[in-house]
Amino acid sequence: MAAPKKGRGSTGGQGRPGRALVLILIAMVALTGGMFLSGHTTPRLGIDLAGGTSITLKAKSQPGKPDAINETNMNTAVSIIERRVNGLGVSEAEVQTQGASNIIVNIPKGTNSAQAREQVGTTAQLYFRPVLTVTGGEPTPEGSASPSASGSGKASATPSAKATDPETASDPKTTPSASATTQGRAVTDGLKKDETPTPSASTSGAPASSDAPAATGKPDPATAALEKKFTALDCTDPAARAKAGDGVKPEEPTVACGSEGDAKYLLGPAEVSGTDVDDAKAQFDQQRGIWLVSMEFTDKGSKKFQTITKKLSSQQSPQNQFAISLDGEVVSAPQVNETLSGSAEISGSFTQQSAEDLANVLSYGALPLSFSEDTVTTVTAALGGEQLEAGLIAGAIGLALVVIYLVAYYRGLALIALLSLLASGILTYTIMALLGPAIGFALNLPAVCGAIVAIGITADSFIVYFERIRDEIREGRTLRPAVERAWPRARRTILVSDFVSFLAAAVLFLVTVGKVQGFAFTLGLTTLLDVVVVFLFTKPVMTLMARTKFFGSGHPWSGLDPKRLGAKPPLRRSRRVTARTDHPKEA
Amino acid sequence: MSRLGNLGARLYRGEVGYDFIGKRKIWYGVSILITITAILGLAVSGLNMGIEFKGGAVFTTDTKAKVSVSQAQEDAATASGHEAIVQELGNGGLRIQITEVDTQKADQIKAQLSEDLGIPEAKINADLVGPSWGEQIANKAWAGLGIFMVLVVVYLAIAFEWRMAVAALIALIHDITITVGVYALVGFEVTPGTVIGLLTILGYSLYDTVVVFDSLKEGTKGITKQTRWTYSEIANRSINGTLVRSINTTVVALLPVAGLLFIGGGVLGAGMLNDISLSLFVGLAAGAYSSIFIATPLVADLKEREPQIKALKKRILAKRAAAAAKGESVEDERDDRDDLDGDYDEDTQHAGAVVGQRRQTGGHGRTPRNRR
């Protein structure tokens, strides 16, 4: 592969080194300009340098479902985790897949990472449960009664009162729709009675829960405990909201909060689970001009759904509602007006976004993946800053040592090497800064290491070229032809070795996960930039420098003094070893 | 510079040089010895795997704790129910490492430690690793290693030839074995950082090897059409010719790594910087050694088995014996060779053939000095 396609011939570059230089200068100016225009003048820092918490989740394989861990499921899992984490008020949390079965969650410093972890680690579980009681989100419902719309009207994904108008109901598919007004009234009704018996009364009275052993009319201890829990539940507290449904089995009744915290529910056992949903889509109803969510059930799910809707449709409000509970939170609680099967639509005051969200939620539930926490790294801002500083100091020391070595050995030529390293540095820095917003690249500690190691790889390209030029001078050539004759061979070597280096980086990047990836990325990027810099910068500059008196005449300090290099006069004939075909074939 | 520069020139012209190929058996022996030591070390003492591979927790404090290191060790052991390793860091902070605790338990330990050490929880860095994580990292690293090796062998076989690919692969395995062996013998902790470093060596070790091979490939173009040198002799010249570059490259690569190692070890005490740079340092040194002492001699060995090259060697040796019998002077031959080179310079593509014929008519041997 070694023969480069785009490279100039051995003498071609001599005439127009300016063009390549202009090209790379334009690239540098454009990148720098772009960097300042985009406002991202520093590379985005990873958690280990900026501080924060980073969690690696691994999807657990599910028995009987060998294909469960696939790209689609992983992506939906990412969206749901993102929603959960960002729902905590973490605005800059980033969630991304890595490899086939890992999800990385990065939570910047200054957030409650413990709470975030709780949210992140759990499985997305979706159930359809009959609603037994619903009240506002406060712990003691009495007095708080502003049930009108607070029950669900604000929850974007929850169908609102509007949905119950006759027009909606006449929809052929018959929309299960919640009515906040009805809901509110039910709550009010409940409040008028003695507070404690309310839940049990409705529990026992609801045929929906007839097959629930825990709710058979006589309040057994479990039911009593549940009631107590329901009364005490404070859905306005996000932590309590998240915990409300913890550890509850689907076949048991439970308490749950509305996802906005403004309603709480006492729910019967799960009748239909997320796995029964085949597909859910957000759709725009042209006729009515509203967004709705349509669901398709699997055969089994369809039967179950038919049974529950039949039961529910004969109930009084609020027991004719079923709650769509996701991870213990009620996302939506539509009202059922008639028996449904096969497919269903949920309508309400959806926006496009909220309809898509709910459709996603329904789909997620249909594709549950459970995750285990594989790593949790918490880095304080202080340590992050320290690590960054250490990395930069190490880089500076490394660079300084390389510079000293190059100056000592190559003298004047070191100037060209330094300029090239500078060009490479500018390109690397600006590209890294721009890649932050573009593809979410974050500079972490291994990436800094990669960049430092890359100093060596980049400098090596110059060494290859300089040694070739010196070889040519030893042949007795003057500098200008030596620079041109050395190039094709140096170019070949640089391309071959950079290719191998890039291959290593690419394989590492594709195969590995976590920190290794950041390292591989930087290494690959700098290797590519090395080729660019050597072709478009080092070589043209070398050609130009060869025209100066200092280098051209082989000044002792230029690093190209023929005498010092041991070139043997007379210069007319080269003395070389026969079998070495030292001159370029490409010439 | 001047002395080194002159040395470079003399190496280049073949006036001085070390007979890498001729003494290859010694170096093979050295390498086999090192490799056996490495394998023995691996078998006897095993690798000291970090918590990333065993699962567990590492807590680091930013500030100086109120308690001593030994007290912290006790506290950590009580809090976790497992043995804890506590180190003091360069900045006065503590690094507490507890193995085999799961991520949930680690949270409790962290809270307990925060109380015991008198450091707020927000100021404790935690690195919690589940037991399956290390396995996953290791598996992926092995997969990466395998894929990379296959690709590189295919690439080298196409760009060069299969013998070079095989030799490069052996050199690569050699480097990795040595690095792993050093880790086993010295007892450095193996972390994902180590793995990163190890995998980077792959690229770097080959990078070096490829440069020597590149020069070897050029040097041996049209080798069968001349009767001056054997393959091994040219291979030796290639090594010597690129020796200055190899040394420079290795030095230039090692300098930034040394910077990392110094900062990582000296300032931060431990961590990713240190882990990566340590394995890189060992691996780079092994890589530079193997590309010169192992990879190229192996290619020469493999090549010398080829019938064509074998025949060539026979012809050359016979001719040299004949020349020695005639007692031709060295100086004559050298002048003659210069003439030939002059012509050689002007011709390009078919130079090898032309030179070969002329040489046969010239019928000269080689100077012992230049043969190297």
From TrEMBL, chain A:
**SSD domain residues:** 413-544
Query: Residue ranges under compositional bias (Polar residues)?
Result: 171-185
Q: Name one Pfam family in it.
A: Sec_GG
Mind telling me which InterPro entries this protein's record contains?
SecD, SecD/SecF_arch_bac, SecD/SecF_CS, SecD_1st, SecD_SecF_C, SecD_SecF_C_bact, SecDF_P1_head, SSD
Q: Where in the cell is it found?
A: Cell membrane
**What job does this protein perform?**
Part of the Sec protein translocase complex. Interacts with the SecYEG preprotein conducting channel. SecDF uses the proton motive force (PMF) to complete protein translocation after the ATP-dependent function of SecA.
Name the chain's protein: Protein translocase subunit SecD
Q: Which organism is it from?
A: Streptomyces mutomycini
- Organism ancestry: Bacteria, Bacillati, Actinomycetota, Actinomycetes, Kitasatosporales
TrEMBL record, chain B:
InterPro entries in the cross-refs: SecD/SecF_arch_bac (IPR022813), SecD/SecF_bac (IPR022645), SecD/SecF_CS (IPR022646), SecD_SecF_C (IPR048634), SecD_SecF_C_bact (IPR055344), SecF_bac (IPR005665)
- PANTHER family for the chain: PROTEIN TRANSLOCASE SUBUNIT SECF (PTHR30081:SF8), PROTEIN-EXPORT MEMBRANE PROTEIN SEC (PTHR30081)
Q: Which family does it belong to?
A: Belongs to the SecD/SecF family. SecF subfamily.
Kindly provide the name given to this protein in its UniProt entry.
Protein-export membrane protein SecF
Subcellular location(s) of the protein:
Cell membrane
Sorted alphabetically, the keyword list is: Cell membrane, Membrane, Protein transport, Translocation, Transmembrane, Transmembrane helix, Transport
Q: What is its main location?
A: membrane
> Assembly and partners?
Forms a complex with SecD. Part of the essential Sec protein translocation apparatus which comprises SecA, SecYEG and auxiliary proteins SecDF. Other proteins may also be involved.
